[in-house]
């Protein structure tokens, strides 16, 4: 590609609404252009990256035996009503009426559409397993679109759907996709991690998220550096940090802690470790009758944080909400800040985190403003609690597999594999005939990759103060040739054209910057755009038969003889 | 590709709602599957064809210097309000509100979006000319979707937009696209014709349609077999069929023609050629005040048909409508069937078609039920008329270029190139700075190809009673290998695998039918699907070292030695 036949449009400054580095750099590099809130044009430079991402995905999906098709963007509401998602999904589901007043949605995902296809197309067990995928435009009407391609409204997703005869088959199809995803992210050249995720009602290890590692990531990933344990924060199991409960030694004592409503402040006032304090979180479970409403008290160690997903899995708490201040006053007789499990005004259900359950002689609120109890002990001062894993793990926690301690890093979710089971086939009556001619529900899995989101995530992981640093496999161009004074020097022009043609013939995705920009502006553009390999051709070097090579991460140029440059670059690309 | 790793789903019968052959065959061949009215899943077999069509388009667009990008499916209404199309376009424009109640459209085309891009991206004449294109999902809310991909609601279109400094530049960009389209349709392997089209307000020869020739086509294409004249019916100029007016000979005579309201019946009754009769068409042009309303009388030769587009170009008739019966009675004093230009009750404006203007001694209605005038003559019996080209050309008419006579064939419109001029850049203030630093409006062209429609059109042109006959370049597979008894015969299996591998290595897009179907069912499937080249491998032939080749249009198989089959097929593919 010659730059003059392409469209390059770089900006010195990012627009004011670009908050994060990937958004800023993609705007500055002319890869995307805003059309509306959360809606972007993919400019020529950006589309090249998208196509490379798509092609890697396509190759690996095909290799894994998945079959590409294409489902529509606009889908009839009837299908979404069959599965109940028409009602369950909130305003992020974009709804539209046609000229006859019939309801449609702009697809955010295609479980319903594919299930509609297979319920007529798949008749016999002989046609199973099968896995269909498509790479298609999606729409999700985010309340507050932001971060460029990271949280846009219109985006491109690859979504695949597997169908199997039974749960064993589903698990096998799932593993095939898990392995394909691993290859896909490896080929992207990105640091990534697959983590076990919560999969709601299905249970088991039926869901994994694939994250691109980045300090700016929204999600906390939990992993064990000395084993293969990895889970997202919602799913990572927290073991008790005290393995057995010490004996009760201190006496329960009501202690004045005026104005100290937080565990940290109480610990400082009393000169005790924060790990000796217990914090109280009050939840409400509503009932049909107001008088059947339950109030629950969850207890966490002072330095720990509540995990809301785990909380919802405690029997009885599936539909919990946080209590209002009025409810707290009604049940505890005091305002938040001094709450505790002892001497509540009305009875509450107490659940202690695993660690709290093993604590002794601890400090908790006294249900009286400006007072805490010290020396509290289970069994003696209050009944033994219900115990559950309620908290987020923290760095240094023991790994649930017993093979080390946990570490935490930040990630950006770009892929998700999920064992759906019969969630959709049941509602939509998608069955096949088994060997005995009996209809059976199809076992379904779904597998998504956020194609356009990959671009943002890759940049969040790979940038410096000059711009983007693309991995070669998804760079808009692999190599840029920057001739200096091509219009003045016949030698530069001749060598440039020669090398350009040689690279094209070698199948290298090369762009020749023939725009005639000054070297400074030219180099700045390509550093911003993030092409990984740059060759500079100038009269000074040519006199000695030399060219310059600069890798995007290199601090200095490498001088390479003219005749060796092609092989030199090929070696870099193969590395 | 192995058939067992692909998804093949054929039907013996097409669903009842499939009216035309391409729709029936695509449904039967498992290429598309209905999701909703005018909304289709592109099944794996269909998607392969779409991708081949897209790739040919992409290659030729790139070769012509156009630059690929991707504009969103969902676009803000504000842009469409700027150009007035938000109001002007009817219910076929799919409108949608987001969660905040803001208006959006699902794009049927992208003039507004691209003009929004260029009005900020294109600053200087140095950046011109430029041509952006995308291949994207479109939506048009057809009132009555039908004919499968021929008139669907959701479809894929390639639309390109060129921007130039001036009209000369636009004409040049237009020609480049015209030439690219010619190459594209040649590469599709389809019989096609580019015809001049009416381009409304712009005038000149600024618009051409590309049609795939098919007897079932909706459009009539006019061309001159002995010259390069070609136009669609709306745009084809009709010359007078009588070059000069004969002398008046007959006397104007009111003749009884009881019950003969049609020219054909009058001619039969009077034993005169239909070509001696004149038919009357009454139009109304409304005005702000009822009393300023005009009634026009258009005169055509009895065997000719009105061309409504030409009619609207007659000065004064831009906003015409057909007159109501009440208006006809009020102006002519009689009901339709016996109307004419002589003795109208109230004054009407008379326009005669070019042929009628040169007629003498003709027959026309007498404005009295059951009576016609015979022997009518211009200048003598009624004033000389305004003359215009009002009619559709017919087969055998003189070609407007004077180089022969016109013929008419049917076509399916699949592409359109259009010189828009400043239609959009004016409304959206899309300017560039010229050499003198003065802002100038961008001159714009637009160029569309209906990607998914191509599939339907190709089939309408190429099918037989067994199924589809794809041109090789857009066939889902170039070659199918059909082994007979692969599971029983080691020899068949070995030769099949060998040939399959050899073909893959030769870069042939081959599918190996390893499903184990009986030969009859297997052949029927591939004839229905329309793969152009089939190789049959069986024990009987192998004994003599022979295989069978059958071209999709061949009546009989060709016997080819095993060792020569690859070269034989390669020669067929190169043909």
TrEMBL record, chains A, B:
InterPro entries: aa-tRNA-synt_IIb, aa-tRNA-synth_II, aa-tRNA-synth_II/BPL/LPL, Anticodon-bd, Anticodon-bd_dom_sf, Pro-tRNA-ligase_IIa, Pro-tRNA-synth_IIa_bac-type, Pro-tRNA-Synthase_IIa_type1. It is found in: Cytoplasm. It catalyses: tRNA(Pro) + L-proline + ATP = L-prolyl-tRNA(Pro) + AMP + diphosphate. Its EC number is 6.1.1.15. The keyword Nucleotide-binding applies. Residues 33-471 form the Aminoacyl-transfer RNA synthetases class-II family profile domain. Gene3D superfamilies: Anticodon-binding domain, Bira Bifunctional Protein, Domain 2, YbaK/aminoacyl-tRNA synthetase-associated domain. GO terms for cellular component: cytosol. SUPFAM superfamilies: Class II aaRS ABD-related, Class II aaRS and biotin synthetases, YbaK/ProRS associated domain. It is an enzyme of class 6 (ligase). One of its GO terms (molecular function) is ATP binding. Keywords: Aminoacyl-tRNA synthetase, ATP-binding, Cytoplasm, Ligase, Nucleotide-binding, Protein biosynthesis. GO terms for biological process: prolyl-tRNA aminoacylation. Belongs to the class-II aminoacyl-tRNA synthetase family. ProS type 1 subfamily. PANTHER family: MITOCHONDRIAL RIBOSOME PROTEIN L39/PROLYL-TRNA LIGASE FAMILY MEMBER, PROLINE--TRNA LIGASE. Homodimer. Consists of three domains: the N-terminal catalytic domain, the editing domain and the C-terminal anticodon-binding domain. Catalyzes the attachment of proline to tRNA(Pro) in a two-step reaction: proline is first activated by ATP to form Pro-AMP and then transferred to the acceptor end of tRNA(Pro). As ProRS can inadvertently accommodate and process non-cognate amino acids such as alanine and cysteine, to avoid such errors it has two additional distinct editing activities against alanine. One activity is designated as 'pretransfer' editing and involves the tRNA(Pro)-independent hydrolysis of activated Ala-AMP. This is Proline--tRNA ligase. The lineage of its organism: Bacteria, Pseudomonadati, Pseudomonadota, Betaproteobacteria, Burkholderiales. The gene is proS.
């Amino acid at each position: 590609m010659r730059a003059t036949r392409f469209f390059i449009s770089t900006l010195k400054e990012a627009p004011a609404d670009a908050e994060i580095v990937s958004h800023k750099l993609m705007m500055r590099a002319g890869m995307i252009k805003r059309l509306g809130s959360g809606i972007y044009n993919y400019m020529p430079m950006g589309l090249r990256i998208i196509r490379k991402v798509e092609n890697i995905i396509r190759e690996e999906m095909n290799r894994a035996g998945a079959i590409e098709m294409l489902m529509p963007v606009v889908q009839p509401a009837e299908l979404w009503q069959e599965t109940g998602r028409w009602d369950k999904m909130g305003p992020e589901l974009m709804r539209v009426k046609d000229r006859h007043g019939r309801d449609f949605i702009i697809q955010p995902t295609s479980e319903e559409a594919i299930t509609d296809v297979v319920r007529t197309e798949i008749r016999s067990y002989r046609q199973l397993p099968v896995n269909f995928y498509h790479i298609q435009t999606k729409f999700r009407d985010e309340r507050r679109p932001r971060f460029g391609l990271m949280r846009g409204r219109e985006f491109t997703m690859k979504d695949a759907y597997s169908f199997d005869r039974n749960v064993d088959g589903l698990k096998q199809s799932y593993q095939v996709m898990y392995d394909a995803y691993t290859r896909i992210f490896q080929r992207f050249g990105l640091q990534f991690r697959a983590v076990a995720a919560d999969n709601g009602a299905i249970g088991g290890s039926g869901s994994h998220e694939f994250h691109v590692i980045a300090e700016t990531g929204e999600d906390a990933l939990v992993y064990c550096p000395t084993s293969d344990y990895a889970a997202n924060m919602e799913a990572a199991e927290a073991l008790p940090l005290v393995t057995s409960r010490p004996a009760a030694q201190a006496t329960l004592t009501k202690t004045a802690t005026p104005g100290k409503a937080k565990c940290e402040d109480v610990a400082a006032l009393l000169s005790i470790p924060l790990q000796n304090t217990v914090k109280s979180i009050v939840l409400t479970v509503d009932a049909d009758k107001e008088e059947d409403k339950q109030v629950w008290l969850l207890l966490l160690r002072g330095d720990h944080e509540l995990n809301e997903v785990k909380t919802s899995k405690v029997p009885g708490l599936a539909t919990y909400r946080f209590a209002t201040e009025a409810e707290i006053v009604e049940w505890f007789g005091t305002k938040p800040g001094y709450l505790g499990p002892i001497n509540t005004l009305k009875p509450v259900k107490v659940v202690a985190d695993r660690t709290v359950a093993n604590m002794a002689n601890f400090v908790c609120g006294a249900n009286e403003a400006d007072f805490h109890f010290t020396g509290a002990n289970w069994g003696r001062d209050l009944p033994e609690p219900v115990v559950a894993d309620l908290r987020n793990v923290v760095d240094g926690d023991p790994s649930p597999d017993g093979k080390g301690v946990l570490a935490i890093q930040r990630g950006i979710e770009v892929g998700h594999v999920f064992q759906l089971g019969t969630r959709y086939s049941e509602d939509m009556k998608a069955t096949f005939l088994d060997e005995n001619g009996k209809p059976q529900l199809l076992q379904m899995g779904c597998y998504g990759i956020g194609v356009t989101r990959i671009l943002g995530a890759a940049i969040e992981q790979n940038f410096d103060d000059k711009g983007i640093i693309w991995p070669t496999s998804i760079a808009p161009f692999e190599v840029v040739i920057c001739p200096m004074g091509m219009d003045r020097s016949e030698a530069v022009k001749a060598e440039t054209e020669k090398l350009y043609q040689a690279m094209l013939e070698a199948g290298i995705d090369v762009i020749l910057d023939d725009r005639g920009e000054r070297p400074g502006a030219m180099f700045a553009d390509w550093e911003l755009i993030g092409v990984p390999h740059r060759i500079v051709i100038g009269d000074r070097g040519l006199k000695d038969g030399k060219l310059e090579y600069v890798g995007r991460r290199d601090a200095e140029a490498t001088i390479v003889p003219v005749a060796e440059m092609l092989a030199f670059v090929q070696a870099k690309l193969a590395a």
